[in-house]
Amino acid sequence: MTINYEHLLNYPIPEIRQTIRWQDTALYNFSIGLGQDPMDQKQLDFLYEPRLKAMPSMAVVLGYPGFWLRNPDTGVDWTQVLHGEQSVILHRPLPAEGEIIGRSRISAIVDRGPGKGALLYNERVVLDAKTGERLATLEGTTFARGDGGFGGPSGPVKKPHPEPERAPDITLDLATRPEQAIVYRLNGDHNPLHIDPEVAAKAGFRQPILHGLCTFGVVCHALMKALCGYDPARFGRMDLRFSSPVYPGETIRTEIWHEEGGAAFRARVVERDKVVVSNGLFRHP
After folding, report:
1. Residue 203 pLDDT level (bands cut at 50, 70, 90)
2. Does this model's pTM top 0.85?
């Protein structure tokens, strides 16, 4: 089956209503590495229920409609899809408890041509279920490697944020834990690539890899620590491009450049000196 452009662009992605418990918020924060220093009071604010806060990146697991691209009627070869880019725009700090609604849609599709794949641009709006207030907007890019040449438009293509050529102003290292992918999947992403060594080996990896959105969360932690003083109210948005996977247990070094309104950033794993996140953009509210 090939992509039907109009059908996929208007695909009925289910609306999700989700109840957030404080345990869910604490689990998410723990799963992206908060709490490795149990004496750090600022990190405990994201783990200890009497004063619990939600990390801005938690928006990526709110209102998640599941891996709907796996449905045969999408026309997409789901075995050939990659998560290419992700952004979170925070309209107000996320609640640590409450009920939310997630509404997702495909916002654009770009046909790169036969043998060159397709780009699927998606948007999810996270709303407070009680008030209808918009909490966050998520934008992502999925690279469908096996689905080009269906006759769709060839653009426009999102331009990545440029990286400065000078040395970074801030460098911050955060370690991941060997079992971190096993913990992170409890947030709802159950892809066996992140837990089953046999599945990982068939995909060409020496071991299960860290979820891309877990890497996103680790980098968000670095930005919150370096630029926001761990205050979610000082976080506006972050955009990034996924460049390479991380193996659980590796150290992620976030390199940050100050610029008007916020910062540019990228991240690499220290042990392999491999860039894993590129073209990052951060903005204050």
Report:
1. confident
2. yes
